[in-house]
Amino acid sequence: NSRTIYLLSQLEKINLDSVLGESDSARYVTSKILHLVQSQEKTRKEMTSKSSTGIEIILSTLEVKSLIFFYGFIAVLHFVIMKCGGRRASVLVTKGGTQILLQLLLTASKDSPPNEELMVLLHTLLAKIGPKDKKIGMKARINGVLNISLNLVKHNLQNHRLVLPCLQVLRVYSTNSVNAVSLGKNGVVELMFKIIGPFSKRNTSLMKVALDTLAALLKSKTNARRAVDRGYVQVLITIYVDWHRHDSRHRYMLIRKGVLQCIKSVTNIKLGRKAFIDANGMKILYNTSQECLAVRTLDPLVNTSSLIMRKCFPKNRLPLPTIKSAFHFQLPVIPASGPVAQLYNLPPDVDDVVDESDDNDDAETESEIETEIDDDKDQHFKNDDIETDINKLKPRQELRRPIEELKMYEQFFPELSENFQEWDLVSKEPKPFVPDANLSGPIVVPTASEE
Question: Which site in 183, 216, 231, 258 is 20 to 30 Å from 209, CA atoms measured?
Fold first, then answer.
């Protein structure tokens, strides 16, 4: 489209000029580009094609121009991305759009009060391209924009048009564990429980996004403990029962599943499982699952409920006197220390059925301080369960026959005794064949006997 190419070239020329009179021209070009994008699908595809520089020109304009130009260009990006789908969102990410949009969000938030229309567009764009950018959580934290979306939700709880895209962005931020802890300290968990509530046919999309955000936040053990301390486990179970009773036509299965996902996240810690049992959660989920069995579309609810109940069910000992087998086989080498040695050294009357291997696991994780180390923490991770000492991995075994008796086999394994450094293995010149005196005569097998 020659018209689009001409307008983009004009916009690129305006970017290079710093004349004050160019503001009107920039507005005119922006309005024309927005009109073409809104009216012609061919223009939208051309803007986001691999060979086109349209996205780069718009992003560079957003970097160099003042705040008064933001709305027009962001409207162009918003329309292109929302109409053209996820593949176009990936184009915006590869061009560095995430960083620029976060900077624009930081700049726009400094206005008092912030421009609502601009905030809606920015958050909608970030929510759309966020899943395509694996580093968006880290970028948001570095740019200092985590609390912007949170504060907008706090002060505009009744403005659902603004709250919905803000919650979508918070859901993207919360996939990063460090961000989840930081947002939890600023009261995001308590805020989510102000949005979610009992059965209502109004604002179900907002309810669904809030539940997804809360489930992501509760994966952090710090946030899960905060939810348990405030009695939110009982609240989640009550909300689930209310939606289960009123949703007789099963139209809001995703919301019911979202509540179960929150319960599943909070029961990852020992305190959460205890609070779940104390709130009679086992009986409630069992009864509701029984009622859902007849409806095939509710299988996800049954599966999630089963996972929660299996995780929270109290542990019982095996109905066995010992975990040792009735048949005993002597190991060739019994290590001097370790779990195997402890098992072999136990007296016969000691009860070894009770497995306390994971009893301290929750205590350790709950007392663990979640430090604000980002994705690089995996590079410094060290697993203490992996043995690195070669000598311990290969225990020495005593030979059943002395070494002198094995020397008769030495000629079959020259690699064990031959000094290969004296051999000329690099030379490519052929060597004349010289028969070896040791090779003459019959082949004698040491284990064979003469008749």
Answer: 231
